[in-house]
Specification:
Largest sheet: 4 strands, parallel
Bound molecules: iron/sulfur cluster
Distance between the termini: 25 Å
Order of helices and strands: EHEHHEHHEHEEEHH
CATH topology of the largest domain: Rossmann fold
Strand order of the largest sheet: 3-2-4-5
Shape: elongated
Structural class: alpha/beta
Strand content: 15-25%
Number of domains: 2
Oligomer: single chain
CATH superfamily of the largest domain: Response regulator
Helix content: 25-40%
Length: 221
């Protein structure tokens, strides 16, 4: 999923400083799972913003709404009845959601209330870690299911580098060396011979090096 974290309240309040009426919009998908911008977080942020405006002797009207998916024009349409009454939209979705709302409502400012982080997986309660960089040409099939692009600090396609120490990455003893993980996994699968085969240089165009990417499914258009 796409992970995100709420921005500092000072940054959010600065965005909406000139506004009297805010449409605060959450998303029911990834940001709900990582507790950054779902219905609950919309309620909490609304309370914090109310409190903040009271302290400053101002009144702030906030309409709270959480869409099923903010990156989907179909659901973004649900904001139409409220948009004219708002000085700005404060979006608690990832950057894709913010941009989908801004593309639909061109004359209303749309501000992000979260920082979009990475594509990650849950490691344990409250901990998410990066697992994929969307390189567009997945090599998990030859690396035992461990991604060297996202999990090796240098995105090495063959490793490890000389900096690995006791199985940990040179950037920090808290970071597992991805290539140590790949080795262990290949051993566990009984295919450690695979480690001897050099992986060819990667074509990074599908990873975004060829400009903004798009998927067109003719059968669905
Ligand atoms: S190889 Fe590419 S697509 Fe596969 S997990 Fe890694 S970054 Fe994602
Ligand atoms: S120590 Fe391992 S994870 Fe860190 S940069 Fe080198 S090969 Fe990559």
């Amino acid at each position: 999923m796409i992970t995100a974290e709420q921005k500092p309240i000072q940054e959010i309040t600065k965005y909406i400083e000139p506004c009297g009426k805010i449409l605060l919009v959450g998303c029911n998908e990834c940001v709900t799972v990582c507790a950054a911008g779902g219905r609950k977080e919309v309620g909490l942020l609304a309370s914090a913003l109310h409190l903040n405006s009271l302290k400053q002797g101002k009144t702030l009207e906030i309409k709270e709404i959480t869409l099923e998916r903010q990156c989907d024009p179909e659901y973004v349409e649900e904001l139409a009845p409220y948009i004219d009454g708002a000085d700005a939209v404060l979006s608690m979705a990832c950057g894709c959601g913010v941009q989908t709302v801004a593309a639909r409502y061109k004359t209303t400012p749309v501000f992000p209330a979260v920082n979009t982080k990475f594509m990650g997986a849950s490691e344990s309660q409250g901990i998410w870690a990066e697992r994929c960089q969307g390189c567009g040409d997945c090599m998990l099939g030859i690396t035992g299911g461990i991604c060297p692009v996202a999990r090796c600090s240098k995105s090495l396609l063959n490793g490890p580098c000389g900096g690995t120490s006791n199985g940990q990455c040179e950037i920090s003893p808290d970071v597992d060396c991805a290539w140590r993980l790949i080795w262990e996994r290949l051993v566990a699968l009984g295919i450690q011979d695979r480690y001897e085969e050099l992986n060819a240089a990667k074509d990074w165009r599908p990873a975004g090096g060829g400009g903004p990417r798009k998927i067109i499914r003719e059968d669905l258009v």
